Amino acid sequence: MQISRRNSLAFRMNLAVLLASSMALGTLTLAILVFDGASTRTKLQDRLSTLADVVGQNSTAALSFDDAPAAGEVLEALRAEPSVVSACLYGLSGRLFAGYRRERVVQTCPAALANTLRADPNYPTVRRPVTQRGELVGTLVLSSDLQDLGRRRRQLLQASGLLAFIALIVGGISGALLQRKISQPVFELAKAMDDVSLQRSFAVRVSPSGTDEIIQLGKGFNTMLAELERHERAQKEAEAKLQFQALNDVLTGLPNRRLLSDRLLQLLATARRESRIVALLYIDLDGFKLVNDSLGHSVGDLLLVQVAARLQSRVRLSDTLARLGGDEFTVVLSGLHKKEEAALVAQDLLDALSAPFLIEGHQLTIGASIGISLFPENATDAAALTQQADSAMYASKRDGRNRATYFTPELGMLVRERLNLENQLRGAIGRGEIQVHYQPEFDVLTKRLVRFEALARWIHPTLGIISPDKFIPIAEESGLIVMLGAYIMEVACTEAVRWQAMSPLPVQVAVNVSTLQFKRNDFIEEVLDILKRTGLRPDLLQLELTETIMMTGVHRASDSMARLRAIGVSFAIDDFGTGYSCLSYLPSLPFDALKIDRAFVRDLEQKPENRAMVNSLVALAHNIGIRVIVEGVETQGQLELIKKCGGNEIQGYLTGRPTANPEAQLTEFLESTRKAVENDATLRDAVVFPR
Amino acid sequence: MLAVLVTLTPIAGAAQEQPRDERAVKAAFVFNLTKYVEWPQKNEEIVIGFVGVSQTGEILRKMLNGKTSDSRVIRVLLSPSEPDIARCSILYIADPSPKNVRAALEQARGKSILTVGDTETFVRQGGMIGLVTVGEQIQIQIGLENAQAARLKISSRLLNIATLIRPTSDMAN
Question: Mutating which of A65, A73, A117 best tests the B interface, going by the most B Cβ atoms within 10 A?
Fold first, then answer.
């Protein structure tokens, strides 16, 4: 801001000082002039009177004895008195007797005394009677003029003028000094403010000086600047933080999806120019969901941080490691010479994750599935590259996890199919496309049909029957399994109620329960609700859980199971031996049965180690007081071996394929039993195989 | 006020207003002399004796007899006897003969009597105040030693306008 000279504080102050001194001087001069004028007039009057008395006394003889020349001489003595302009001596008759007048004075003595009465204000006049021994002998009129007064006034005015001049100089100097004291600091403040606006920086400070008020102002100014600076800094920090958060993952600090796509675009542009290969590695942790679900999100988050650190330690600075969200990471490798290098990096990353993680006392082992997509071999744009790497990652998962897979066009088809299925699965239940088939399970010793296992089938209008192996994982990943599981359980229970009416002996129904379904808070209520709705006796329901149930937390799982077991529901552990079995947890959970996976049964007759495994598992189960159900029994030889091992129940093609019409199978079983009983009364309780 | 004063003192004003009657002016002068001279003794009246032959005496009596000057009543005695002279405050001697003048002065000697004459030689002969006509003016001559010898005090103001005459020794005889 430009400060105009006329409007400046300094100018105003100088003006005020000068005005004040001038006014004081002016007033004083005026007062002196008035007072001095009055007193001068009075003094002049007094002096004239005195002079008139003296001169009059000296004139008495001249008057008495009519000696005008003598009177003239007496009056002439007034020449020594410069203030007297004229002296007129009149006799008793009133005629002019003698007169005196100063040189160069126009005024003359009137011939008659009476004419002296008209006083001229410019000529102060006294008239004094002249007496001798108390008798009047004449009258003396003395006139003065104001020359003296005027002269005195001129002198006074000259002195005043000189004083005024001095006062102006002194005022100017003191004003300048005052300005230095007062307005200079103010001016500096204004300048500092200008600096703030010009430099757009609040780092400017003033050094407070001058009067207390201005020091206060300066301090306030500094405080305000400091506050503004602090505010600005906080705002910048917040902006930087926002900026960082916008481009980085909050948890791990790694670049996020947005930053990744920016970098990917740049890298692809560079690679295109330099004809280089870029590899995009899509990494999804295996089993992370389980950790998150069972140990809580805080443990899951800590695990992700450690995973990020390990991955980061294995990539070059020129590579970009990003977290896309959840347990999904991406590494972009640029400047590759051969596509095989990508696999080497992927393997290195897998190795990095292979060692267990120790988090809050938990020792966690997880793997990762990696998909690799290559530029320019597979795709030339970032979106397609990412999508393809994702597909390849799913292929890794499908092929047994903890591996890396290069994208191939065939994988693309699979992924599209899978996506398609997921979308269609959402409406499948409503459209009645989900059917429940039942596979019988028989007691090895009594040969009795003890239960049917409910198995879901998706009858797709165009694709035909889709196997559970295909759609159950999709249902699990999409969460549709919860709804699907509940639906199958209700259908199965309804079906099982019908069986009881047909059979003299109770027939159980086994329903698979997904871990996702089981850990839901309302799971128990859901089961109770279904039992109540369908009217199935709880002891006729067997729920089959997989080994992953142990990861949800033993106590909670055990509690939930105990509550349902209390009303008669039984539990079996499904696909035992294929997952991450943790034998130590097994005794803590109130299972009734253990289902040995078909993988152990397939080569049972050929491989003695499989027999040893089944033997051990049966022994283990029996030792902790639970029955053993063997899946996938297809031959009589397998059955014999299982019987020898002590397996309690079997399930498989040998005794019955899954069927949409279990009632027919039950009827057939009951019929053959009835015939056998009829043939041999001793076999009343025996179970006869249908074939 | 001034007009009143003027009417109250017609005699004094006559000296200036009226045409020059020398005798009247001298009479007025004599009256005025009473104000400029101090006698050693305080008298309630001023007796003016007139010795001489001129008509001045008559005019004196006419103008001054019965008047008051400074609260003192003036009485004019024409041709007073020797005892009367002794009572006089002023003795006006109007005789052209120096011998008569001397005789009159001799009668006043030793007494506090202001002697007034109107001849040129009056003061030299031993008189105190001489009212001498010079042209149009009447000159006042004063023999100060003579007056002081008679213990009379003459106002300095009067002295200022008068001509002082020292008596010659031969004339004193």
Answer: A65
B29 vs A contacts (CB less than 8 Å): 65
What is the predicted pLDDT for the residue at A59?
A: 86
3-state SS assignment for residue A206: coil
Asked whether the beta carbons of residue B158 and residue A136 sit closer than 8 angstroms, the reply is: no
In eight-state DSSP terms, residue A108 is -
Domain boundaries, chain A: 9-173, 184-245, 248-407, 451-674
| Nearest alpha-carbon partner for A96 in A82, A75, A79 | A75
How does pLDDT run across B61-98, given as a tens digit for each residue?
A: 999 999 988 889 999 999 888 888 888 999 999 888 88
How near does any CA of chain A get to the CA of B173, in Å?
A: 31
Q: What is the mean pLDDT of residues A326-338?
A: 89
Joined tokens for residue A556: 């909670």
- The predicted-structure confidence for A367-395, as pLDDT tens digits, reads as follows 899 999 998 888 888 888 998 898 899 88
B70 to chain A: closest CA residue: A133
Query: Would the pLDDT of B11 be above 70?
Result: no
Cβ contact B157–A60 (<8 Å) = yes
**Alpha carbon distances (Å) from B87 to B80, B83, B114:** 10, 7, 12
CB A71 within 8 A of CB A105: no
Whose tokens are 């023999």? That residue is B143
pLDDT of residue A681: 57
A134 neighbourhood in chain B, CB within 8 Å: 70
CATH code at A9-173: 3.30.450.20
For the CA atoms of chain B, what is the radius of gyration?
Answer: 15
For residue A64, give the nearest of B3, B5, B35 by CB distance. Answer: B35
**How far is the alpha carbon of B35 from chain A, nearest alpha carbon, in Å?**
7
Show me where the domains of chain B are located.
Answer: 2-172
Q: Is the ipTM of this complex over 0.90?
A: no
The whole-model pTM stands at: 0.43
- The CATH architecture that domain B2-172 belongs to is 3-Layer(aba) Sandwich (3.40)
Query: What are the pLDDT digits (tens) for A75-111?
Result: 888 888 877 888 889 988 888 888 888 877 777 788 8
Shortest CA gap A133–chain B (Å): 7
CB-side exposure of A245: number of CA atoms within 13 Å? 7
Give me the mean pLDDT over the A334-343 stretch.
87
DSSP class of B167: P
Pairing of the two strands B137-142 and B163-164: parallel
A173, two tokens: 């100097």
Q: CB–CB of A65 and B161 under 8 A?
A: yes
| CATH architecture group of domain A451-674 | Alpha-Beta Barrel (3.20)
B139 contact A CB<8A? no
CB contact under 8 A, A70 and B2: no
Mean pLDDT over the full length of chain A: 85
CB-based contact B35 A95, cutoff 8 Å: no
| Whole-number Å distance between alpha carbons of A141 and B4 | 19
Most confident of A124-128, A385-389, A544-548, A671-675: A385-389
Is the distance from CB of A78 to CB of A100 less than 8 angstroms? yes
> Among partner residues B12, B138, B160, which is closest to A92 by beta-carbon distance?
B12
3-class secondary-structure state, position A88: strand
Is A66–B160 a contact, with Cβ atoms under 8 angstroms apart? no
Task: Please state, in angstroms and rounded to a whole number, the distance separating the CA atoms of residues A131 and A56.
Answer: 8
**Which residues in B lie closer than 8 A to residue A57 (C-beta atoms)?**
157
Fold for A248-407, please state it.
Answer: Alpha-Beta Plaits (3.30.70)
What is the least distance, in Å, from the CA of A66 to any CA of chain B?
7
